[in-house]
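DEPOSITED CHAIN:
***
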Amino acid sequence: MPSFDEVLKEAGEFGRFQKRVFFLLSQTGITFSSLFASVVFLGRAPDNFWCRIPGAAELSERCGWTLEEERNFTVLPLHLGNESVSGECERLDVTWDTSVSCSSPLAHHGNRSTGSLPLATCHDGWVYEQPHSSIVSEYDLVCGNAWMLDLSQAILNLGFLTGAFILGYAADRYGRILIYLLSCLGVGICGIIVAFSPNFTVFLIFRFLQGMFGKGTWMTGYVIVTEIVGSDQRIVGIVIQIFFTLGIMILPGIAYLIPTWQGIQLAISLPNFLFLLYYWVVPESPRWLLTRKKGEKALKIMRNIAKHNGKFLSPHYSEITISNEEVSNPSFLDLVRTPQMRKSTLILMYAWFTSALIYQGLVMRLGIIGGNLYLDFFISGAVELPAAFLIIVTIDRIGRRLPFAMSNIVAGIACLITAFLPEDISWLKMTVATLGRLSITIAFEVVYLVNSELYPTTLRNFGVSLCSSLCDLGGIIAPFLLFRLAAIWLELPLIIFSILAAVCGLLVLLLPETKGIPLPETVEDVEQL
């Protein structure tokens, strides 16, 4: 009986069928990256807001105040009395009397300076010039509640983390395409509920669920793509990352055209329903079917692939070699039971954690400096495009391990140099920091490919999902690490990033090279790498 790779070679390793499936599933990268980075636009800080005074609605109605007049009467006296108080988080703790004069509601306080009047924190909410422009103004995430915006992103990352475990396990047990389609449905439904959440608690619950299902679409789609192509074409695992970057570049355009956060949320969520149409055009992974002792279904799909690729399988292909491994439900112990698997798992988990922590840390540090938010965000995404092309040029020529190690080491060196460059040569400081961003992006993209190549088919989806869950942990820690350390010394986070990256670069040199080697089918195959 021929092996799966022998049958795939005869059916076509990257023919018309695989190119179509690759293109269709790659669209998931656009929607997933939009969800990943959406907080930048969903959580924009409102331009103008101020404390709502007690009885503000009644006062405005009685006096016929416009929004601007209300602001002038309530905030301007406060600012004149104490320039350090903006009126955003504090208000005058006085009784507003309009019975005498609507034009001087503070007249009954006599000649006392407003600077001597008592202050109080905002207890009656806030007034926003654009009340529905972001979740900040929608749910009053300002002043003492500002930390809740960070919580919303942490909750999304927690959803990613949960999805990596639950849906990664489910995809190995129940099938890739089934979990992919259910995840797409989940992202769409949860995205709609998020857009119309009546309160912040409901928003957080379904933001968490959308993150969980979003991770299911991205990871499962990625695994399907890498499992239906030959070993020489697994570079598609890098090319699919370009669609993630495209999503980052498209997002500011969506946000520019749609003025409300609900509109942006719907725009990035509704396309997931279109992916349900893939039920009729994307088959189950034949590699996965073989591991579940479903050789006839796998062979039927392979014949269909050959037909679409303009090829024909030999009639004597009545069966395909099936893994002798017992079909079992994957667990973490399976990833660390044998020496090679254990070494790969621990190194890959550290690589995922480091890549995510440094990537997000550098994005926040470079800050998308001032100016036009939409244009700056677009440019920051465009910086990532060369990473994929550099990988494509080098990875099939010199292998996976060396670019993986060098990208981490270069990122570490760039962070270290940036930390000690003086501020007066800002152009050089920015250039070196951008080199660090480019290098860690390369490392981030290579780890996807290497991770999928170092696990057997029976454990691939679970292994990739589990290891990549450390990416989400890094994403949760990054803002806290960056801002806490920067409070001690502005450049201290860069020193930590440089150490983490350099250690990662040395560790990945211990991984086996997978260039041109067929995907391992069993744990025994992995141990022989």
In short: The longest helix spans residues 460-488. The radius of gyration is 27 Å.
